[in-house]
Amino acid sequence: LHDALPIYNEIVINNKTNIANLSLADIEKSHIMLVLEEVNWDKQIASKILGIAKTTLYNKIETYGLIEKK
Questions:
Q1: What region does 12 belong to: left with phi over 0, alpha with psi -120 to 50, or beta?
Q2: Whole-number pLDDT of residue 69
Q3: C-alpha–C-alpha distance, residues 32 and 37, integer Å
Q4: CA nearest 29: which of 65, 68, 69, 3?
Q5: Helix, strand and coil percent figures for the chain, each rounded to 5
Q6: Cβ–Cβ under 8 Å, residues 43 and 35
Q7: Is the pTM of this model over 0.70?
Q8: Rg (the chain; Cα; Å)
Q9: How far apart are CA 70 and CA 55, in angstroms?
Q10: pLDDT in tens, 6-30
Q11: Count of CB atoms within 10 A of residue 35's CB?
């Protein structure tokens, strides 16, 4: 499981946290950030990959306080 999900593997190893102790919101936030970084913050593509509306993605970015690293 951990090898198939690199972002969660990183969370588990670096923070020494059991993935079962992560909230669904933590996992969602990490997954959204991973997708955004993979598509260079192209929100149209990211929303399609995530299977959510672009407005929903914008709301989640704001809710989770995600910031593009430059």
A1: alpha
A2: 86
A3: 9
A4: 65
A5: 65, 0, 35
A6: no
A7: yes
A8: 12
A9: 23
A10: 555 555 555 555 667 778 998 899 8
A11: 20
